[in-house]
Amino acid sequence: MNTVELDKIFDQAKSWVLEAGETIRTKINDPLTINTKSNPNDLVTEMDKETELFFAKKIKDTYPDHLILSEEGFGDDIDSLNGTVWIIDPIDGTMNFVHQKRNFAISIGIYQDGVGEIGLIYNVIEDVLYSAIRNKGAYKNEEKLPLLSESVKIEEAILGLNHFWLCENRLVREQTMQQLVRKVRGTRTYGSAALEFAYVAEGIMDGYLTMRLSPWDIAAGVVIVNEVGGTTTDINGDELNMIKNNSVFTCNPRVQHIIIDDYLRKGRK
Ligand code: IPD
Ligand code: CA
Ligand code: CA
Ligand code: CA
């Protein structure tokens, strides 16, 4: 796909994301139909489904040959990223959406033969859109984001991670994770993987670390973080498989190796 075509797809995707966000904002105080999926804390609402359906219809009408990989079941059944694939999380941070009515995002990554070309993460309530086209830099609304700091040290880093890392878990020894939490300047947990990627891209967090995410949680974030010089791997430092679930570590490269070598690998179970 040439850059003119990509720019057009970007503009189209952006206008749909803004439109879907506007719909969510106007309905934000309507009563919610909430269901659970894999466990009582795994929530889904009608709004998650309606939003995904909105994108699926628009995409299929406009680009019948494009494919969709998405969370709520309106996408295609795909087992490779061949062709143009829209990887969609209609609401990332559903628990926040339900309980807080804020701190959630629409996340869309558009991949061409496995390469992330476009990323869009829309913080709906704050009306802030993080976006990127590969090799063209990343933006927060109209403002270009600077490259990540080259001078950050681990002692001054802020890391995004949730508290399950400090509970008994199958991946890394809790004691090692406690040492990491004490080593860094601070930790944060926001409850939306997409927003946490966006904050790493913005440089207001230096890394974000998670045990298991799906492609739609990270597809947009990977593209956006890349554009500011950040790097995303699994927690062993290995390449992600974008059609499977992965542990995920997105980070400023200045502190990536030390966190992987001295903590995540050293404490690996
Ligand atoms: C979830 C959020 C959350 C992360 C979960 C995801 P959802 O996505 O990104 O921050 O910890 O693993 O499943 O279900 O709200 O789209
Ligand atoms: Ca979900
Ligand atoms: Ca998600
Ligand atoms: Ca979701």
Describe the structure.
- With 269 residues, this protein is of the alpha+beta class.
- It has two domains: 3-144, Fructose-1,6-Bisphosphatase, subunit A, domain 1 (Fructose-1,6-Bisphosphatase, Chain A, domain 1), CATH 3.30.540; 154-265, 3-Layer(aba) Sandwich (D-Maltodextrin-Binding Protein, domain 2).
- The protein has seven helices and 14 strands.
- It has helices at residues 3-26, 46-62, 94-100, 174-183, 193-202, 215-227, 253-265, and strands at 34-36, 43-45, 67-70, 84-92, 105-112, 115-123, 128-133, 138-140, 143-144, 158-160, 186-188, 207-213, 231-233, 246-251.
- The protein starts with a helix and ends with a helix.
- 43% of the residues are buried.
- The site of one calcium ion has 6 residues, from strand 4.
